[in-house]
Amino acid sequence: MMEENNVALLFVSHVEALAEGARELLQQANPDVGIYSCGGLEDGEIGTSIDRIEASLNKIDSETDVLVFYDIGSAKMNAEMVQEMHEERNIVISDAPMIEGGYVAVITAGLGASLEEVKRDAEEGYSKGE
Amino acid sequence: MMEENNVALLFVSHVEALAEGARELLQQANPDVGIYSCGGLEDGEIGTSIDRIEASLNKIDSETDVLVFYDIGSAKMNAEMVQEMHEERNIVISDAPMIEGGYVAVITAGLGASLEEVKRDAEEGYSKGE
Amino acid sequence: MNVEQAKQWLRQTSARLSEHKDELSTLDHALGDGDHGVNMHRGFQAVVEGLDEWEDLSLSSLMQKVGSTLVSKVGGAAGPLYGTAFMRMGAAWKGIEQVNGSAWSEGLSKAVEGIAQRGKTSTGDGTLLDVWSPVAEAFTEGEPSWDNIESAAYKGMEATEEMVVKKGRGALLGEQSVGHIDPGAVSSYYLFQELANTMKAGEQ
Amino acid sequence: MNVEQAKQWLRQTSARLSEHKDELSTLDHALGDGDHGVNMHRGFQAVVEGLDEWEDLSLSSLMQKVGSTLVSKVGGAAGPLYGTAFMRMGAAWKGIEQVNGSAWSEGLSKAVEGIAQRGKTSTGDGTLLDVWSPVAEAFTEGEPSWDNIESAAYKGMEATEEMVVKKGRGALLGEQSVGHIDPGAVSSYYLFQELANTMKAGEQ
Ligand SMILES: Nc1ncnc2c1ncn2[C@@H]1O[C@H](COP(=O)(O)OP(=O)(O)O)[C@@H](O)[C@H]1O
Ligand SMILES: Nc1ncnc2c1ncn2[C@@H]1O[C@H](COP(=O)(O)OP(=O)(O)O)[C@@H](O)[C@H]1O
Ligand SMILES: [Mg+2]
Ligand SMILES: [Mg+2]
Ligand SMILES: [Mg+2]
Ligand SMILES: [Mg+2]
């Protein structure tokens, strides 16, 4: 029923459980969209690791566009470093609220929207409450 | 250094790991603020349970004001049911983005802000990216 | 409807929802997260398990118990919505042993009010309310016409296919939500169809 | 500074940061999440472990390695910031075996540029940049005055106490961030003090 979609979502958090929990929640909303997650440091401490971000990225087909969601600022800086290291890939970082924007993103990505559309919808199309 | 604060934060998610990961991330930002979490169903499935929300609420001193953050709409409906069942308590539900608003909330709650101030800051004082 | 008939209704509904578990989840896969069948099955299983324990309850208390069980067990949006509906019926039927024409009308309109409040929704939003609301209106002061009620439920369900969903997860799809029947409307149709079946069997 | 002095500098910085781990975390407790000491300790531990393996690297490659190690290991905002700073110094010092007056100036101003880009920040925001920037300016075309450099770092660090923090976690505190020295500024001060110590020891 879903159109083929070419945007994968990557969730980068300071806490592994948070990233993985987000993935689990959003994957349920559409099992066909590629959703990846990484979080925490090797030693289980709170933080983000570019090695883990890269490892997640390497799981995604290199032709697939990637929209990255992050929890707080330093995760974004690390995501930007990985983005710069992979200029050959189409990676975009979203400033949308990670869970709420991510939910919109999985829906629109599932409808076959482009990376730019998914990013815009995640940042603007999010609504909560009434 | 922190003033006494009288606002506890409660994170309600469809996924236990997500709620608990949020708690872990935010608790680091201020170990002195009361942060509670619940998520998922008894059988490990994705969903929210008013029993779990109530159990978390019961861990919080009954004089303490409670600001509830939720992930998606049906969690809010369940939180509202619990809120109605406990009219004797001061429980308010925030429509702020759960992680980003929660981060602001833990900071302002830690500075001794009132429930209304914490709610407002979480919903309006959140900024991401630049 | 007396308390025994209510129990019969709930048992039949539970069986019906179990049978249609996969169908409901598939419908929810298009508009939501694909768990509506599992959710309703989980909730009504718990209700049926409860029925054996709730032996001596009045009709009103039974409805309250059903409501709180659904709220606790369903896990998704349908939980607080169905739960509120049953609790409001229970409240409306305080002291009533046998639900008749006006009590039906009163109970169902309170249920509809509860769903609308809980879901912050109104008819036309493409949700289960689009079944509950015409069903409530199909109850008149006189004795219910179960055929009318069933057909009101059926038409309400069918009508959701053409609606742009405004509430719940499906709302994110915008115009793309058109063309799909709402899963909550379908489960509600089964609920009312089994009500009609139960009551018609009792009339014979 | 030759490659051996650079290694000495890094070793001394690592020891210094380990000594002050708790102090840095306590400072970060007031403005952030209380992990800056642990983060810097983790990062520079990994650098020191690397030094033994990176035996035959040029000064430029060594700086690059230090930078990428810090990015990988620090875990907090300081990781990409310090990491970018070292990588930019490495890039500026391509083909240079001995960093002298103008190379220092060039390397540090590239580092400052890198931090400003990475952190989307500028001086006065109450961050480590408020140490790095005056330090870069204290390097002139001639041979460095290590006393000047150390005092520029010290003054830069101290100045953060009066600033409203505009970037990083401390920014959420608004006016309440005034009265606290920025932890990243303090770790940067230690870094440059150990640079001065190392270079002054070499001069004797
Ligand atoms: N705000 C709402 N108002 C009315 N009905 C709603 C609302 N949100 C969801 N629903 C109903 O709930 C159904 C989905 O239930 P379910 O799948 O069990 O929950 P979830 O969406 O949390 O997974 C929808 O098909 C719709 O009929
Ligand atoms: N955007 C930024 N620009 C410049 N420096 C920053 C920025 N964000 C954080 N910092 C610096 O990083 C320090 C905090 O580092 P650290 O505690 O290791 O990271 P985190 O805040 O992720 O826990 C701050 O004291 C500040 O000097
Ligand atoms: Mg569902
Ligand atoms: Mg669900
Ligand atoms: Mg920190
Ligand atoms: Mg940190």
From TrEMBL, chains A, B:
It catalyses: dihydroxyacetone + phosphoenolpyruvate = dihydroxyacetone phosphate + pyruvate. It comes from the Bacteria. One of its GO terms (cellular component) is membrane. SUPFAM superfamilies: PTS system fructose IIA component-like. Homodimer. The dihydroxyacetone kinase complex is composed of a homodimer of DhaM, a homodimer of DhaK and the subunit DhaL. Component of the dihydroxyacetone kinase complex, which is responsible for the phosphoenolpyruvate (PEP)-dependent phosphorylation of dihydroxyacetone. DhaM serves as the phosphoryl donor. Is phosphorylated by phosphoenolpyruvate in an EI- and HPr-dependent reaction, and a phosphorelay system on histidine residues finally leads to phosphoryl transfer to DhaL and dihydroxyacetone. This is phosphoenolpyruvate--glycerone phosphotransferase.
UniProtKB/TrEMBL annotation, chains C, D:
Pathway: Polyol metabolism; glycerol degradation. It catalyses: dihydroxyacetone + phosphoenolpyruvate = dihydroxyacetone phosphate + pyruvate. Gene3D superfamilies: 1.25.40.340. One of its GO terms (cellular component) is cytosol. Residues 4-197 form the DhaL domain. SMART domains: Dak2. Pfam families: Dak2. PROSITE patterns: DHAL. Keywords: Glycerol metabolism, Kinase, Transferase. One of its GO terms (biological process) is glycerol catabolic process. InterPro entries: DhaK_L_YcgS (IPR012737), DhaL_dom (IPR004007), DhaL_dom_sf (IPR036117), Dihydroxyacetone_Kinase (IPR050861). GO terms for molecular function: glycerone kinase activity; phosphoenolpyruvate-glycerone phosphotransferase activity. Its EC number is 2.7.1.121. The keyword Zinc-finger does not apply. It is an enzyme of class 2 (transferase). Homodimer. The dihydroxyacetone kinase complex is composed of a homodimer of DhaM, a homodimer of DhaK and the subunit DhaL. ADP-binding subunit of the dihydroxyacetone kinase, which is responsible for the phosphoenolpyruvate (PEP)-dependent phosphorylation of dihydroxyacetone. DhaL-ADP is converted to DhaL-ATP via a phosphoryl group transfer from DhaM and transmits it to dihydroxyacetone binds to DhaK. This is phosphoenolpyruvate--glycerone phosphotransferase. It comes from Geomicrobium halophilum.
